[in-house]
Amino acid sequence: MSSLGNLTVLTGPSGVGKGTIVKKILESHSEVWLSISATTRKARLGEIDGEHYYFLEKKNFQEIIDSEGFLEWATFSNNFYGTPKKIVKEKIEKGTNVLLEIELEGARQIRKSFPEALQIFLAPPNLPELEKRIRGRGTDAEEAIRDRLEIANKELMAKNEFDAVVINEDIEKAFKEIEGLMGLKI
Ligand code: 5GP
Questions:
Q1: What pTM, to 2 d.p., does this model score?
Q2: Per-residue pLDDT tens digits of the chain, which is 186 residues long
Q3: Pocket perturbation via mutation, ligand 1, pick of 72, 103, 130 by most ligand atoms within 8 A of CB
Q4: Nearest C-alpha to atom 15 of ligand 1 is from which residue?
Q5: Is residue 155 a part of any domain in this protein?
Q6: Assigned domain for 186 exists
Q7: Sign of CA dihedral 100, 106, 108, 111
Q8: Positive or negative torsion for Cα 98, 116, 37, 70
C-alpha cells in the first residue's frame, strides 16, 4: 500500500516573502508539488495563467464554489482565491508532498478539513520592514498596499494558531528552517 503524501500550508502576510521561499523549496526539492490557486484578481505584469494562478472571472469562480470544487477558498482584498480540490486530493493520495501557499482564512479551513496538515506561518521581522517590502515590490497601487497592510496586522495577530512561526529576517535561514519543519532531505 502506498502512503499518503504530506500536506503543508504556508501562510503569512502579503509581502513577507512566501513566494521566494516557495520558489527555493521547489528548486531544491522536486518531490514537492505546489498547488496552483484560482483567483479573480487581475494578473500582474509577468504573471502567467496556469502557472502563477488560474485567473478566472468571478462568475466562473462562483461556479466552482457552488460545485464544491475548492478545498478552501477566501476573499482577500476584494478578490477571491481558492485551492482546487480534485488535483490536490489526487496528489496526496499518490504520496506526493503538497504545498499550499494561502492566506489566513484558507489556512483555518484546511486546519478543519486536514488537521494532520503542517501549518507554518512566515512572519516579517517587524511591520515597517513589511511595508518596505510591499512597497519595494512595486506591484500594487497605493490603495491595495494600505489594504494589504491592514490585513497583515490581522494575520500577524493569528500567528500563534500555527504549528510553527518562522521569522523571515534572513531568507536563507528561513528557508532552511522550513526545509527542516517539512522534513525535506537536504
Ligand atoms: P496575491 O494577490 O499577493 O498573489 O495573494 C494574496 C494573498 O492570497 C496571499 O496571502 C496568498 O498567499 C493568498 N492566496 C493565494 N492563493 C490562495 C488560495 O488558493 N487560497 C487562499 N485562501 N489564499 C490564497
A1: 0.95
A2: 568 999 999 999 999 999 999 999 999 999 999 999 999 999 999 999 999 999 999 999 999 999 999 999 999 999 999 999 999 999 999 999 999 999 999 999 999 999 999 999 999 999 999 999 999 888 888 998 999 999 999 999 999 999 999 999 999 999 999 999 999 977
A3: 103
A4: 102
A5: yes
A6: no
A7: negative
A8: positive
